[in-house]
UniProtKB/TrEMBL annotation:
InterPro entries: DUF1262 (IPR010683)
Protein name, UniProt field: Uncharacterized protein
Length: 394
């Protein structure tokens, strides 16, 4: 899960590049090229060359060397400061579109003329964010090569593909036509701690939602069932993740004693699900240990007429979501349901009440597919905080 920062901030304060990623595991920064970052060439035009790191993620970037060009996306490696210059390099064109450049190893070396050992590139593969052979460190050129780049493998025995390990390649940028990135500040801790308002009528099953956080998630961390990787990249380069809070009713009671006598308390006995996932608005099923070999957890929903929709979330995303919940008191467990038992005393005057409701705090992550034509909620992931219970009387 990534937050955004403007490139101009790093130009003004280069020391900010060394700041660790936002609090929590599996987090990182996306850099937004903004108007203040524009540079003007000698002829008075906006310069489309990227001459230094960090690379922006809200622009289409192309690596060029001589007459060759390779459209790519540079995605910062999770849990690294931007000063590390570590990136996943994702292909934006060709038969490997959507896949990550992969470094070859010593064992992939070939034999050339005069029996000399030579580097033999390996094909790109779908991203595994934990695979160090899919990470490169970008080095900026100096002297003759100033304003250009080369790359080295983060793995000590790795060799980046030729278009990256060649010294002196340049990067140009252009405005993407199929996606836009806005500001994603991450978590608003103070708003989250204040909790949603509780001044709504008992006839409502839940309160109004309050948004307390926003992140972006590159498409490689999400899988849509039945959609090929290159089609997914074309459809949605980045997903939006929102965190919202609301109160949700888990128990209610009506006082059938007209006189209101001998009923100054209510015994609450209710069950609440710890976690609930919805895919395209329908409740989904999943098995905690059903994690595919490529590090994704899958959720499936059914439309009632034989149709099935599935979405896979990288375990990097799932782990971050759960960490974000556990830090404010949510407790996971093997059992999906939690029993809530408590006695609520009526504190009103005269001992008269008509209706009672008990509510639990729910924090929901909303995963939205974004496009230039708008966005829609692909998946929602609810966490019910049974240590945060409130009651209402009427």
């Amino acid at each position: 899960m990534y937050v955004t920062r403007p490139l101009s901030m790093y130009r003004r304060s280069p020391e900010s590049l060394s700041l660790p990623p936002p609090e929590g595991p599996n987090s990182g920064y996306l850099v937004l090229h903004d108007e203040e970052s524009d540079e003007v060439s000698c002829c008075g035009c906006i310069d489309n060359r990227v001459r230094d790191t960090p690379f922006p993620q809200n622009e289409d970037l192309t690596v060029g060397y001589g007459s060759d060009d390779d459209p790519v996306a540079f995605i910062p490696v999770l849990d690294q400061p931007l000063s590390s210059n570590r990136y996943h390099v994702i292909h934006r064109r060709g038969r490997h579109k959507g896949e990550a450049s992969t470094n070859s190893r010593e064992e992939d070396m070939g034999t050339g003329f005069f029996n000399r050992r030579s580097v033999r590139d390996v094909n790109p593969k779908p991203l595994d964010p934990s695979d160090i052979y899919q990470q490169v460190e970008i080095l900026t050129g100096d002297n003759y090569y100033k304003g250009s780049f080369t790359a080295k493998s983060v793995a000590p025995d790795g060799f980046p593909p030729k278009f990256l390990r060649t010294k002196g390649w340049i990067v140009t940028r252009s405005t993407p036509y199929d996606y836009q990135l806005g500001e994603a500040p991450g978590l608003n801790s103070s708003l989250r701690a204040s909790l949603p308002g509780f001044d709504f009528p008992l006839s409502h099953d839940c309160s109004e939602a309050v948004f307390v956080g926003k992140w972006y998630c590159p498409f490689m961390f999400v899988k849509e069932g039945g959609v090929r990787l290159k089609e997914q990249m074309k459809k949605c380069m980045f997903y939006e993740i929102l965190l919202e809070q609301r109160w949700e009713k888990i128990f209610d009671s009506v006082n059938e004693n007209v006189e209101g006598k001998n009923k100054g308390a209510v015994f609450v006995d209710a069950f609440a699900q710890r976690e609930v996932v919805f895919v395209r608005g329908s409740e989904a099923i999943w098995v905690e240990r059903n994690v595919s070999g490529d590090g994704f957890m899958w959720f499936k929903s059914f439309d009632g007429v034989g149709g099935e929709t599935s979405v896979g979330l990288s375990m990097k995303v799932v782990e971050r979501m759960k960490w974000e919940q556990e830090r404010v008191g949510w407790v996971g467990g093997d059992e999906r349901q939690v029993r809530v038992e408590r006695v609520e005393e009526f504190g009103g005057t005269g001992g008269m009440w008509k209706r009672f409701g008990c509510y639990v705090l729910v924090e929901r992550f909303v995963l939205k597919r974004m496009s230039v034509n708008g966005s829609f909620a692909l998946l929602t992931y609810d966490f019910k905080h049974t240590h945060q219970i409130r009651s209402k009387w009427e």
